[in-house]
Amino acid sequence: MPDLNWDHTDQESYSYADLNRIETAIRELQELLSRYGYTIDSPWTDWTRDTPLSQLEIDRIRRNICALQDVFCRLPDWREIAYNSTLDSGQVNAWEWDLHTIGVWVDRMTAAWYYSGDLYAGEV
Fold it and tell me: What is the pLDDT of residues 12-22, one digit of tens each?
C-alpha cells in the first residue's frame, strides 16, 4: 500500500499524484478485502495533470472510502468524511487516515488468524 499522509496543511496544494496515491490505496484495500471474502466494487480513475477534478469525482472517492469500511466493519478510530462542496486539508487528511486505519485493522485481523491455525489449536 502506498505511504499515506494524513498531515496536510491548508498551505499545501493537492495534485494528481496525491489523488493517484488515494486511488491506489483504495484499489489495494479493495483487492485485499475481496481475497478475504469482503466484496466491494470501487471504481477508480488514473489521474493525470490534465484530468479535471469535479465534485462528482470527489464524491466518488468519498463513497469508495466509506464503502471499504461498510463492507469490513465499523472502526473505532474512523474519521468521519463530510459530504460537502469543499475539498480542504481536513477532508484529505480524513481520507488518508481512514485508508491507513482500514489497512491497520485488516493487518490485525490477519495476524489474529495466525494463532488460530492447526499448530496453535493442537490439531497437529
Answer: 777 888 888 89
